[in-house]
Design goal:
Helix content: 40-55%
Largest sheet: 6 strands, parallel
CATH architecture of the largest domain: 3-Layer(aba) Sandwich
Number of domains: 3
CATH topology of the largest domain: Rossmann fold
Radius of gyration: 26 Å
Strand order of the largest sheet: 2-1-3-4-5-11
Shape: elongated
CATH class of the largest domain: Alpha Beta
Distance between the termini: 65 Å
CATH superfamily of the largest domain: Response regulator
Length: 361
C-alpha cells in the first residue's frame, strides 16, 4: 500500500504534509511521546513504541532531519579523517563504509577530511572519527586541538589522546600468527612493517619482537614507509632474502641504513615472511615464486587480493567495516552523553589460515 493511500484511509488529506503532530494525533498520544517513541528515547513502553511506529509507517511519515539537528544546535554531520592511502587500500575503503552506514542510522552525514586539506578554521561538524591517525601529522594535530569530540581507531601516537578509542590487540594476534608459522615448520620468520608513527604498525612490530625474544629467535625486520609502494615493498623483501642468505657475515644486531635488523651468522635462513602493510604480501608473492625459495608468506591485513591469491595468503582479518561502525557508534554515544570521555573499546580481529602457510613436510 502506498503512503498516500494509507493517509487517505486514515482521514488525512493527501495534500497536507504528515508531521509528528499528525502521527501523535492518529496514535492517540502526545507529540512528545510520539517523538520519543520514534527516536527510541524517553520512558515509552514497548507497546506504545510499536503502535506509534506502525502509525508513522502507515502515514508515510518521514522525520525532518535538518529541523531536528537545528533544534539541537547540531550540524548533523561528523568528520572522518583517514590517511591518504585510501585509494590504494581496501581496508580504508571498508572502514569508511562502516562509518558512513553507522552515521546514516543516526541520520547524520559524513565529511571526509584528508591530510592534504589545510584548513584555516575548524570543520563544521559535531565530532570527528580518526582512522589510524599518524603521529606527526599536522592535520590530525589541528583536528584534535579543535576541542570537538573525537574518536580514534587505534591510539594516537602523540601528546594528545582522543576522547574515545577503538583499538585491537595486534601484538597478541601477531604472536598467534607467528605460533602458527612455527607449527608449520618455520624457525626464522622475518617482518616487513611501517614505522612507529602508526600505533597499529608499532603494535605489530612490538608483537614480533616480543615473540622473537620469547622463542630465542634473532629478529629480522625491514622498515618501509606507511604508504609504501609496490616497488618499496619488493625491495624490502629482496633485502631480507639477501640478508638471510649471507650466512656468517652479518654484523651483530645493528639496524642498517633502511631499518633492517640483521641477524648473526648461524641463525639459519629466512623461512617465513610476514608483511604488515596492506597489499604488501600480494606484491611479494610473485617475487618469492620467481626466486624459487620455499618461504611461508602471511599478511597482517586481509583483503580480497589475499583471499584470491594463488595460493591464498594467510592473513589477519582486521574487520575494517565493523571497526568503522564501532568508531562512529562510540562518537555518537559521546555526543549524547551515553559514554564518558576516555572510553576505550577493544575491536575483535581474526586470523584466517590459508594455503600460503601450509605445514612443511
Amino acid at each position: 500500500m502506498r503512503a498516500d493511500e494509507g493517509r487517505e484511509r486514515a482521514g488525512v488529506r493527501t495534500e497536507e504534509p504528515v508531521t509528528i503532530l499528525t502521527v501523535a494525533r492518529e496514535a492517540g498520544v502526545s507529540k512528545t511521546t510520539a517523538s520519543d517513541a520514534l527516536r527510541g528515547s524517553g520512558r515509552v513502553s514497548e507497546r506504545t513504541r510499536e503502535a506509534v511506529a506502525q502509525v508513522a509507517e502507515r502515514l508515510g511519515y518521514v522525520p525532518n532531519g535538518s529541523a531536528r539537528h537545528l533544534r539541537k544546535a547540531s550540524t548533523g554531520t561528523i568528520g572522518l579523517h583517514v590517511p591518504e592511502v585510501l585509494t590504494r587500500s581496501s581496508y580504508y575503503m571498508s572502514f569508511v563504509f562502516g562509518v558512513v552506514e553507522q552515521a546514516a542510522r543516526h541520520d547524520y552525514d559524513v565529511t571526509l577530511i584528508t591530510s592534504g586539506q589545510r584548513r584555516s578554521r575548524p570543520p563544521r561538524v559535531d565530532g570527528l572519527v580518526l582512522g589510524d591517525p599518524l603521529g606527526g601529522d599536522p592535520v590530525v594535530e589541528s583536528l584534535m586541538a579543535t576541542g570537538l569530540p573525537t574518536v580514534s581507531c587505534e591510539r594516537f601516537p602523540g601528546s594528545r589522546q582522543a576522547d574515545g578509542v577503538v583499538w585491537s590487540e595486534h601484538a597478541s594476534m601477531l604472536g598467534r600468527l607467528l605460533d602458527h608459522l612455527r607449527e608449520s615448520g618455520a624457525s626464522r620468520p622475518a617482518l616487513i612493517v611501517a614505522g612507529d608513527e602508526s600505533d597499529w604498525a608499532a603494535s605489530v612490530h612490538r608483537g614480533y619482537l616480543e615473540w622473537c625474544a620469547a622463542h630465542g629467535v634473532v629478529p629480522l625486520v625491514r622498515r618501509v614507509s606507511f604508504d609504501a609502494s609496490g616497488d618499496e615493498v619488493r625491495a624490502a623483501a629482496r633485502a631480507l632474502l639477501d640478508t638471510a642468505g649471507v650466512s656468517g657475515r652479518d654484523a651483530g644486531h645493528e639496524p642498517d641504513e633502511a631499518g633492517a635488523v640483521l641477524g648473526r651468522g648461524g641463525d639459519g635462513p629466512l623461512d617465513a615472511l610476514v608483511c604488515a602493510p596492506a597489499g604488501a604480501a600480494t606484491e611479494v608473492a610473485p617475487l618469492l615464486r620467481e626466486a624459487g625459495v620455499n618461504v611461508l608468506l602471511a599478511s597482517c591485513v586481509d583483503s580480497a587480493a589475499t583471499r584470491q591469491s594463488d595460493p591464498p595468503i594467510t592473513a589477519i582479518d582486521l574487520r575494517p567495516k565493523e571497526a568503522g561502525a564501532s568508531c562512529a557508534e562510540l562518537l555518537f554515544e559521546l555526543l549524547s552523553g551515553a559514554a564518558p570521555l576516555g572510553t576505550e573499546r577493544v575491536h575483535p580481529i581474526e586470523l584466517s589460515i590459508r594455503a600460503s602457510t601450509r605445514p612443511r613436510p
